[in-house]
Structure of Cysteine desulfurase:
Amino acid sequence: MTTTDVGAGRTGRTFTPAELVAVRADFPLLGRTVRDGKRLIYLDSAATSQKPQVVLDTEVDFYEQRNAAVHRGAHALAEEATEAFEHARQQVAALVGTDVGEIVWTPGATMGINLVATGIQNATLGRGGPAAAERFRIGPGDEILVTEAEHHSNLVPWQELAARTGATLRWIPVGDDGRLDLAGLEGADGGRGDAALINERTKVVAFAHVSNVTGAVAPVARIAAAARAVGALTVLDACQSVPHRPVDLHALGVDFAVFSAHKTLGPTGVGALYGRRELLEALPPVTTGGSMVEVVTMEATTFAPPPLKFEAGTQMVAQAVGFGAAADYLRELGMEAVAAHEAELAAELLRIAEIPGVRVIGPASVGTLGEEAAPEAGLPDRVAAVSFVVDGVHAHDVGQVLDDAGIAVRVGHHCAQPLHRRFGIAATARASASVYTTLDEVKAFREALAGVRAFFGAE
Ligand code: PMP
């Protein structure tokens, strides 16, 4: 890996200055000021991104022109609403390289992970029939593998599944550089003996594509291949990758994946769960009720095929349609150019390590993934989310001083307490970028951060 030419990306192309000006103009909120007229520098996109006008317009247009319940009703509006809703599913599927029927709408990534975990439990209870029980069964002696870097959303549901089924939770540790330590993945001898983190007892491997704290990119294809070799299911938390780089879920070879619209330039209240078609067909539903059935008698119910089987109740239609517009917006920008632009921002952000007393938690540089990382070869090996501590100053105080300068960063444990514990700290501050972030903004942030220790007399 190198730290040079990181902005070149796979296509050698980042945004031109004029393109970046045009992108920023698409995001109305970026034009506002905060704290007595200071220009807003929004460096909290990993928590939630801002939304382009086209997403806002698409949602308004839906309510003004098309609003109706979908997948029921024979009137014109119901038809148009259903068409918009299903078109959005195609737009989102196209962003992540899947078939349209493999995308399930969920209220967010968290709910998608819970859906898979609880679906596995329901299958274990026999609710999907013998074939599903055979495919998904989990119990005492089985193992669920996560990582020490997970967001609580991709940890707690697996702790719960382990507690409810008697399975054992294990985890891949994180190294000092903030990357996963994969030394124990296949066992010391390269075999799959008991000591290996992925072994014959492993039933589920759940991990983040990109850490929301360190910004490090995990070797997805390698982990997925190791899981596949023992028949374990993979569940990828793609919340922090889909908004920032090309993601082809089929090529990555994972079984399930989740991501959220609100981090992907789309509305709140909607996310997507990807599942390989045969798995979605076999997995029993979790939330039951209207809209997800075929035949209901007083005694029993047969379920609609996926994805509708997992979408009980009245759907989040306007939000899904807005998500579709966000997916198209990103695809039109070109995800390779987005990744290249954000790699430049990451390199610039990481220069905060030159400020005395500032320590970055996570990879210190941004490089390019090599051939061994196929299908991700040529993409950046970290994203532009940089967490840090400032000697002698609490993260919340860092955040407050930056806020006084109009700069929005996130402070706290970022829903990743075990990872913070791993580094012996309770909290970090995190600066994170998106398509609309500029190098000038990052430089202004660095200058403001350089003054923080002096402000608190910590020098
Ligand atoms: N995983 C990761 C890596 C995240 O960054 C987040 C959001 N902070 C989530 C899961 C949860 O996403 P949501 O709150 O949209 O369900």
